[in-house]
Design goal:
73 residues, mainly alpha, 2 helices, rod-shaped
């Protein structure tokens, strides 16, 4: 909820300076929230990539056991 809405609900009169302050603080709050969300998305992508790498390594280990030298003997 924006600061301007809170001030309006409590019945405080909003002048031009207060309005400008509210707009600036809301812009900063939104930018921080977006940055936080993008950091979480980066962490999720890193986790997915690590899981895929581990799965690929496990698959390669199984394939090496099936197609190694001397298996047909």
């Amino acid at each position: 909820m924006s600061l301007a809405k809170v001030l309006e609900v409590i019945g405080m009169k909003i002048g031009p300076n207060c309005y400008n302050f509210c707009m600036e603080s809301d812009a900063i709050r939104i930018a921080k929230a977006e940055r936080s969300m993008s950091d979480q998305a980066k962490d999720a992508r890193r986790a997915n990539l690590a899981a895929r790498r581990e799965e690929n390594e496990a698959d390669l280990n199984v394939e090496e056991q099936l197609y190694g030298a001397g298996i047909a003997d």
